[in-house]
């Protein structure tokens, strides 16, 4: 058996790819990290049985698939609010209680999963296949279908490789894939998905969105929303659909004064995103969550505001923003 | 904001430049609305602010301290400020840069937020310089209106103790320039 240090060196090149795979399977960074740990531990313990009949990569993916399937036996699927019911009818009405008992879908920092392949096509596939809408849709597939679809259509494995991994025939693997594809309309990237993440139009749009959010400029913010835009904010199960509804909700509940929120740029699930901070009575901004606005090049089409302060740490940001650094920078002396 | 943060910075830079053009060497020891600072110190300060902003736009990051160590020795602080401000003005034209990300003391931040912070800094100190020199030009109204909206994002209570005085009250019909000056703790001088 190799030492843990030796094994870490062998397995390290696959860690990021395994994390991306487990995240797509489980819809949660926390769960994915747990299962990657579990996978590597099992692989290290069982290394003597690894006879080199497959590549180390295939062998690690087999262990990871089994680890994810086991984990999924005991927990429900991870939804977004829009997956649970109709939009709330009255933006000014009372909101239902926060649902902390629901295991909500989580966003993933791009830095954890997209540093790998240098091939531009592979980068585009990796980014597109991390889109929140797709990750949310995947959670509705039965776990084995989900695994086959991710391995075949996202990671580009051959039918025979997937069949070997799951100990089924190639015909059976193809049949599982057909059923998965039928249920999930298509993960073929659309033209919009293929735009560069650094697209200047998107960057300008998100920049204006953030400035409008920070200054509580509802009129400016509304101008950026597509007429059928959606606004979700797990763990709050209520969500809103339509530009006017969103504007009314933000005006009465969220953007009650300029400077209430500060948005720091990051990227999540292949989108531009923001770590959000909320001002406290005492002065400093405290971590509030991760906001992921989806865009179509011209409009903001949907916003998911993950109001979970812990995620801000997952994205590598501090818990508190104790000084207004922009102002401090302009004041440097 | 109703106008782009790059536009706001450009308008603020032009306003501060115009104010600084009135400065003569005899004015440098005059007291300013900034407590404890004479005009020379104020000009050195805004000059360094402009250097920090330029560093942010050009290099994508702003550190805790600037590269220059001998600023206090400048014989012509108004001229030096003018030179740096005109250089930054040329950067403002590259709007695309203002939708990027800049790392400020280790934390990523939207470049546009830094540009707005710079606009606030230059409008405030441009007003200080204009008051000190006797010209008393007001902050252009559209700029003041935009900055009144952005100021709560940029100035926390903790900052107030270090960098700005408490807001002072103004009459309801005060101009945007007077309202912004009052928000930043400045009284008619």
Structure report:
The complex is a heterodimer of chains A (333) and B (189). Chain A is of the alpha+beta class and 333 residues long. Helix content of chain A is 47%, strand content 16%. In chain A, strands 1, 2, 3, 4, 5, 6 and 7 form a 7-stranded mixed sheet that branches. In chain A, a hairpin with a 2-residue loop joins strand 1 (225-233) and strand 2. In chain A, helix 8 (159-166) packs across helix 9 (170-183) and helix 10 packs antiparallel against helix 11. The N and C termini of chain A lie far apart (58 Å). Chain B has helices spanning 5-20, 39-59, 77-92, 111-133, 141-154, 157-163, 176-183, and strands spanning 61-62, 101-104, 107-110. In chain B, a hairpin with a 2-residue loop joins strand 2 and strand 3 (107-110). The longest helix of chain B has 23 residues, at 111-133. Chain B is globular and about 40 Å long. The mean pLDDT of chain B is 85. The interface between A and B is large, with 39 and 45 residues.
Chain-wise SSE layout:
The complex is a heterodimer of chains A (333) and B (189).
Chain A lengths: L3 H23 L2 H17 L10 H18 L36 H4 L6 H9 L3 H7 L4 H12 L4 H8 L3 H14 L16 H15 L3 H7 E9 L2 E6 L1 H12 L6 E8 L2 E9 L5 E11 L4 E7 L2 H6 L5 E2 L3 H6 L3
Parallel strand pairs in A: 1-6
Antiparallel strand pairs in A: 1-2, 3-4, 4-5, 5-6, 5-7
Chain B lengths: L4 H16 L18 H21 L1 E2 L14 H16 L8 E4 L2 E4 H23 L7 H14 L2 H7 L12 H8 L6
Parallel strand pairs in B: 1-2
Antiparallel strand pairs in B: 2-3
Helix pairs in contact in B: 1-3, 1-4, 2-3, 2-4, 4-5, 5-7
In brief, what are we looking at here?
The complex is a heterodimer of chains A (333) and B (189). Chain A is of the alpha+beta class and 333 residues long. Chain A has 2 domains: 4-72 and 113-192, PhyR, sigma-like (SL) domain (Butyryl-CoA Dehydrogenase, subunit A, domain 3), CATH 1.20.140; 198-330, Nuclear Transport Factor 2, Chain: A (Roll).
């Amino acid at each position: 058996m190799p030492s843990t240090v030796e094994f870490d060196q062998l397995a390290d090149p696959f860690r990021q790819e395994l994390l991306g795979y487990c995240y797509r399977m489980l819809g949660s960074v926390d769960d994915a990290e747990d299962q990657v740990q579990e996978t590597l531990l099992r692989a290290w313990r069982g290394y003597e049985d690894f006879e080199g009949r497959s590549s180390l990569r295939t062998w690690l993916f087999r262990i990871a698939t089994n680890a994810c399937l086991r984990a999924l036996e005991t927990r429900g699927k991870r939804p977004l609010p829009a997956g649970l019911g109709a939009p709330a009818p009255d933006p000014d009405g009372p909101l239902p209680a926060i649902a902390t008992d629901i295991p909500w879908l989580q966003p993933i920092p791009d830095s954890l999963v997209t540093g790998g392949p240098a091939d531009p096509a592979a980068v585009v596939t990796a980014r597109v296949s991390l889109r929140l809408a797709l990750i949310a849709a995947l959670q509705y597939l039965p776990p084995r279908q989900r695994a086959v679809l991710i391995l075949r259509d996202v990671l580009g494995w051959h039918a025979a490789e997937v069949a070997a991994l799951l100990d089924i025939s190639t015909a059976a693997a193809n049949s599982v894939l057909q059923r998965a594809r039928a249920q999930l309309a298509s993960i073929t990237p659309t033209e919009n998905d293929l735009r560069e993440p650094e697209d200047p139009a998107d960057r300008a749009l998100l920049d204006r969105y953030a400035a409008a959010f920070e200054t509580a400029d509802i009129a400016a913010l509304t101008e950026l929303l597509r007429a059928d835009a959606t606004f979700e904010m797990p763990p709050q199960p209520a969500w809103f659909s339509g530009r006017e509804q969103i504007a009314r909700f933000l005006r009465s509940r969220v953007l009650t004064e300029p400077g209430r929120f500060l948005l720091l740029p990051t990227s999540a699930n292949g989108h531009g995103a923001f770590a959000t901070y909320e001002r406290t009575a005492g002065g400093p901004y405290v971590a509030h969550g991760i906001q992921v606005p989806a865009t179509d090049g011209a409009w903001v089409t949907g916003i998911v505001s993950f109001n979970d302060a812990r995620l801000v740490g997952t994205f590598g940001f501090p818990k508190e923003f104790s000084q207004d650094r922009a102002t401090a920078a302009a004041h440097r002396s | 904001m109703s106008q782009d943060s790059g536009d706001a910075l450009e308008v603020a830079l032009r306003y501060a430049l115009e104010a600084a053009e009135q400065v003569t060497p005899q004015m440098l020891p005059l007291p300013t609305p900034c407590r404890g600072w004479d005009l020379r110190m104020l000009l050195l300060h805004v000059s360094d602010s402009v250097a920090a902003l330029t560093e942010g736009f050009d290099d994508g990051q702003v550190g805790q301290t600037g590269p220059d160590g001998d600023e206090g020795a400048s014989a012509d602080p108004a001229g030096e400020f003018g030179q740096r401000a005109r250089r930054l003005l040329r950067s403002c034209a590259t709007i695309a840069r203002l939708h990027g990300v800049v790392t400020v003391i280790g934390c990523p931040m939207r470049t546009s937020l830094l540009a707005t912070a710079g606009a606030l800094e230059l409008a405030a100190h441009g007003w200080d310089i204009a008051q000190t020199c006797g010209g008393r030009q007001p902050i252009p109204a559209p700029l003041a209106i935009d900055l009144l909206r952005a100021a709560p994002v940029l100035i926390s209570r903790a900052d107030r103790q270090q960098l700005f005085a408490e807001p002072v009250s103004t009459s309801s019909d005060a101009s945007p320039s007077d309202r912004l000056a009052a928000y930043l703790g400045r009284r008619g001088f």
